Please model this.
Amino acid sequence: MEETNIKDRPLPETEKPDLKSMTLAELEEAVKAMSQPAFRARQLYQWMHVRLAPDYGAMTNIPSVMKEKLEENYSYTRVRMIDRQISKLDGTQKFLFAMPDNSLVESVFMKYKFGNSICISSQVGCRMGCRFCASTLDGLIRSLTPSEMLEQIYEIRRVTGEKISHVVVMGTGEPLDNYDNLVRFIHLLTDENGMNLSQRNVTVSTCGIVPRMYDLAKENLSITLALSLHAVTDEKRREIMPIAERYSIKELMEACAAYFRETGRQVTFEYSLIRDVNDSAQDAAGLAALARPLRAHINLIPVNPVRERGYRHPEDEAVRAFKNKLEKRGINVSIRRVMGRDIDGACGQLRHRHLTDSQ
Ligand code: SAH
Model:
């Protein structure tokens, strides 16, 4: 497979260059400029991305003159844990982190049979405005840098001591609305010199920004793309997702087909089941018809009630019936296990509660 090149993706503009968002090649350049031997770059990279050094002080084999220069000229991103909730039901842990500028994001740690998974946020807030989603209630503050996305994972690893096999970009924010930083983040996360996570175990979820879906298909990544579909007609989708004003379901399906063609990776459709909105027999038939030609996997998510919105999920029985209707049509379906229902489980709820409590 062709090497992907992230050199042409700009480093995020920060006051001082962001050390933990730099590739090994970029670090080598930086180290050279400090008149240090090239192997120092590899040591530094290891400290940041493998040994998860909390600060320069921990880097015992780096000479102090170099540490002083680093301190002076670069920023070293760390996130601060503000809140941690552990579910008594299933071991799910929800984290609230403050970024270096004190803005807040949520991340979730989940235990599955296949391994441990972390769900990270890609932005502070969100501007997509989906009606059922709490992340969007306070609008978009800003996008996260690659190092701020990585640090959510690194800090959870430091705090829990657990191994991580899967990462999903399904927390607050629209990852494809932060495209360059997202791609750089994926490269760093899956770099063999760093945390070395398998690209196959990374999932990026989007509300469907069509041009960026085509771009992602061309990045030579073997990650899973999940499309938040949630409705099978343009009319209904527009009622619950403002992005549907810009792109039709037909355009979305063409973009998914291109993704499958380019990457060989089957896409996933996410479908949040909302009582009396998108849970009819007709909806199930429409969903199956969209999924079949793409061989898409469907992930049903009984909608997490958000106080401000008034949407409710169907009864468990109705969720199972909806699943059966899809399966009868030969579709591969899973129901998202409701995790951590006792701990502000839904996207954006922990952060939103903190913001409203402090007003
Ligand atoms: N912006 C991206 C990723 C963030 S949300 C996207 O739209 O895909 C991750 C998933 O959770 C999306 O499918 C989103 O639609 C869904 N979601 C958001 N709020 C929800 C809620 N209250 N109940 C169930 N699913 C929700």
Summary: The mean pLDDT is 92. The two ends are 52 Å apart (CA to CA). The pocket of S-adenosyl-L-homocysteine is lined by residues 128, 130, 132-133, 170, 174, 205-207, 228, 270, 272, 301, 303-304, 306, 346-347 (CB under 6 Å).
